[in-house]
Amino acid sequence: MYGTIFNLNVKPGHEQDLLELMDGITPKGGVAWFLMKPDDDNADLIGVAVFESKEAHIANANSPEQNESFKELMEHLDSEPTWTDGEYIQGVVI
Question: Do strands 45-51 and 30-36 pair parallel, antiparallel, or not at all (unpaired)?
Fold first, then answer.
């Protein structure tokens, strides 16, 4: 499996709108995604997306649908997300 970990610097007052927007996002080739609000109130939101493969991740990233979702997402962020892409090499579903 392949995926990305990302940080979202949300504009003040936009968190609920962002969550509602992300609730409707289903990435092509996606297996799962999670969004975490750290206990530190000043921290960015942290997301994890899991894809079937690197190819599925790239295809999703390059899709017109994802481009539109990204434009809508940016309306709620102070800056572009930071991304760390890579292969998940170990994990367990409990």
Answer: antiparallel
